[in-house]
Specification:
Helix 10 packs across helix 11 and helix 15 runs antiparallel to helix 16. The two termini are 42 Å apart. The radius of gyration is 24 Å and the shape is globular. A hairpin with a 2-residue loop joins strand 6 and strand 7. A 5-stranded parallel sheet has the order 5-2-1-9-17, sandwiched between helices. The chain has a 5-stranded antiparallel sheet with strand order 11-15-14-12-13. It is of the alpha+beta class. The chain is built from 17 helices and 19 strands. Bound molecules: flavin-adenine dinucleotide. Flavin-adenine dinucleotide binds next to helix 3, helix 6, strand 6, helix 7 and strand 15.
């Protein structure tokens, strides 16, 4: 019998959430004051959840490993956040956002969750505007929108190229308000290292104070993991250096299923790798594909400078292959198309592993528009260029500056060189409709869970999902669980279960410290990253995945016998922090390959070379693989697969086409 119960409410798709909200159990205000909730993570998902739950009256503790919640990786988000407001009057609706998301995810996400996400999307924008988030506005005052991949409407709200930062400042203000009111206790520079289980339920966490090195025990009637994604398993990614899987992985080892671990998003527009000294890759926001055109030379191995290649010798391959969506095809498709051109010998730059993202046409178009506005009937080319660049600067200036600082080239004058890079993980802890994992009382929100994006996330939908989870979903769904917890008093953290959980964490730390090997942590992380990129990256095959599993297992052995961690356990020790995270990445990497090997189809970001159409597109197998793969940990290198069948009752499942 399957152990999966997704708890999707009965009723028609459009009514499920409304009915659920009106009938879910409530906790009265007096009881809320006696219920404690641990929130791990202070990014958009964690900060919004913590603020909302504290506002409702629960006692909340928030943990993050940075020195301030404002440094959560969410701050890096550039391009925007989706919502079905239809401000543009271009045909958007809740249903269209729902449909685009399901299709964009290559029909591998849960209908009910995605519909709920689309329904609450408008409220997120209202909430953030009320907080003072400075979204870009049109001249007349309405909020402005732009397009992201996989859609034909403009529904992306943005604050220049700093949307995540502005949204996080909003959520952080809401969080700090509750800290000020005494409803939230904030623990910065604390890393959660295990979930404490009592009688089969999550009842708290063990955290390490990263400054003193001390271990601490914290009780919660419920625990929320809002700990972000695990793209750094690849070592090189666009994620913040600290992003890691430890919290989710520890929960997995305590019984939380890990869903679709192999679904990784490789973003098409990143600054290419420039050498093996790098520890981080930089995203150039997808918003740049609104106006930028992507091309490579038509001639193989063309060494001419971009500006010297005439128009008719350029291959705008996305516009050629996908005329309906052009440069705004979803990320998985754009990334594979770039790889295909580079592998075929048409790449540009010294490494030949890059394509051009070109603003020349947009600058002229905007320049001419400005000339019209200013009643200039015969503007010179220079004037058009100047005015066009001003418009582009207004829209994307900080991204252009960033590109120039990193590459030394001025993208206003020469096309940017871009190549795909690891960016986001659609996989994560399996959650039911309530966002509860398979451990009672343990929830996962934001990028840490698997929900909503299927096998490929559409741009600007992660911020939407994180804030939907935190502001609008968990405040309701947690009641379904906590209503039955009101008679349970807080457990003492001196109880045997807490003591044993802390001891297990302490033993693990000592084990790491006592290896006293010869190789630094980064040596192992880089090696793992290379295996993952080569064999479980943009293209995967049965042979490669089997090799990867063997390679990773060998690397795990080497790590546990030869890693060198300087310093002490009971002190500030960033190398120890990294070692713990890499140890978990080493196990997760193996599971990702196991999952990718098991899924004998291609879908979204999971591209198995054996399963492709004649045009090189992902070839799904809906008969055998229309399920969420939820893996249960059963000891080292042992995993049991549980399948959550995906039913599409409101959408016709079809071969994805963006032509
Ligand atoms: C460069 C970049 C640009 C992006 N741009 C966009 C965009 O324009 N639009 C969009 O929709 N999406 C974008 N994304 C994706 C989006 O930013 C993320 O998916 C989203 O912000 C994740 O939010 P989160 O709250 O789930 O996690 P995060 O913001 O990653 O927060 C994780 C939190 O968990 C804490 N934490 C983690 N582990 C532990 C632990 N063990 N103990 C204690 N605390 C822990 C951290 O301290 C942090 O507070 C972008 C991603 C990148 C990399």
């Amino acid at each position: 019998m399957t152990k999966i119960d997704s708890k999707i409410p009965e009723g028609s798709l459009a009514e499920k959430w409304t009915k659920y909200r009106s009938s879910v159990s409530l906790v009265n205000p007096a009881n809320k004051r006696n219920l404690e909730i641990v929130v791990v993570g202070s990014g958009l998902a964690g900060a919004s959840a913590a603020a909302s739950l504290a506002e409702l009256g629960y006692k909340v503790k928030v943990f993050c490993f940075q020195d301030s919640p404002r440094r959560a990786h969410s701050i890096a988000a550039q391009g925007g956040i989706n919502a079905a407001k239809n401000y543009q009057n271009d045909g958007d609706s809740v249903h269209r956002l729902f449909y685009d998301t399901i299709k964009g995810g290559d029909y591998r996400s849960r209908e009910a969750n995605v519909h709920r996400l689309a329904e609450v999307s408008s409220g997120i924008i209202d909430q953030c505007v009320a907080q003072g988030v400075p979204f870009a506005r049109e001249y007349g005052g309405l909020l402005s929108n732009r397009s992201f991949g996989g859609t034909q409407v403009q529904r992306t709200f943005y604050a220049a190229g700093q949307t995540g930062q502005q949204l996080l400042l909003g959520a952080y203000s809401a969080l700090q308000r509750q800290v000020g009111m005494g409803n939230i206790e904030l623990f910065t520079r604390h890393e959660m290292l295990d979930v404490v289980m009592i009688d089969g339920k999550a009842r708290g966490i063990i955290a390490r104070d990263l400054v003193s090195g001390n271990l601490e025990r914290h009780f919660g009637h419920a625990v929320l993991l809002c700990t972000g994604g695990y793209g750094n398993v690849f070592y090189l990614s666009t994620n913040a250096m600290g992003s890691n899987v430890t919290a989710a992985w520890k929960a997995h080892k305590k019984g939380a299923f890990f869903a679709n671990p192999c679904y990784t998003q490789i973003h098409p527009t990143c600054i290419p790798v420039s050498g093996d000294h790098q520890s981080k890759l930089t995203l150039m926001s997808e918003s740049l594909r609104n106006d930028g055109r992507i091309w490579v030379p038509k001639k193989e191995n063309d060494t001419r400078k971009a500006n010297l290649i005439p128009e008719d010798e350029r291959d705008y391959y996305l516009e050629r292959r996908y005329p309906a969506f052009g440069n705004l095809v979803p990320r998985d498709i754009a990334s594979r198309a770039a790889k295909e051109r580079c592998d075929a010998g048409f790449g540009v730059g010294t490494s030949k592993m890059a394509v051009y993202l070109d603003y020349a046409a947009a600058i002229i178009r905007y320049g001419k528009g400005e000339a019209n506005k200013r009643n200039m009937h015969h503007p010179s080319d220079e004037e058009i260029q100047l005015m066009g660049k001003e418009v582009v600067k207004e829209k994307y200036g900080n991204l252009f500056d960033m590109y120039k600082q990193i590459t030394g080239e001025d993208p206003y004058d020469v096309p940017m060189r871009i190549y795909p890079a690891v960016h986001y993980t659609m996989g994560g802890l399996w959650v039911d409709y309530n966002l509860m994992t398979s451990i009672p009382g343990l929830y996962a929100l934001g990028e840490a869970n698997f929900s909503d994006h299927g096998a490929n996330r559409l741009g600007a939908s992660a911020l939407m999902q994180g804030l939907a989870d935190g502001y609008f979903v968990i405040p309701y769904t947690i009641g379904a669980y906590l209503a039955s917890e009101i008679s349970n008093k807080a457990t003492s953290t001196d109880s045997a279960d807490f003591v044993a959980a802390e001891k297990a964490v302490s033993d693990k730390i000592n084990l790491l410290m006592n290896i006293k090997g010869s190789k630094p942590v980064d040596y192992f992380h880089k090696k793992l990253g290379l295996i993952m990129w080569d064999k479980c990256g943009m293209a995967r095959s049965e042979k490669g995945l089997k090799e990867a599993i063997a390679d990773i297992q060998a690397l795990q052995k080497e790590f546990w016998s030869d890693v060198r961690i300087p310093g002490e356990a009971n002190n500030f020790n960033p190398e120890l922090e990294k070692a713990g995270r890499v140890a978990d990445f080493l196990e997760l990497g193996e599971l990702m390959c196991v999952d990718a090997l098991d899924r004998n189809e291609s879908c979204g970001g999971h591209f198995r070379e054996e399963y492709q159409t004649e045009d090189g597109e992902a070839l799904r197998d809906d008969v055998n693989y229309a399920y969420v793969a939820a893996w249960e940990y059963q000891g080292a290198s042992k995993y049991q697969l549980h399948k959550e069948e995906l039913k599409y009752e409101n959408i016709k499942i079809a071969q994805r086409s963006y032509k």
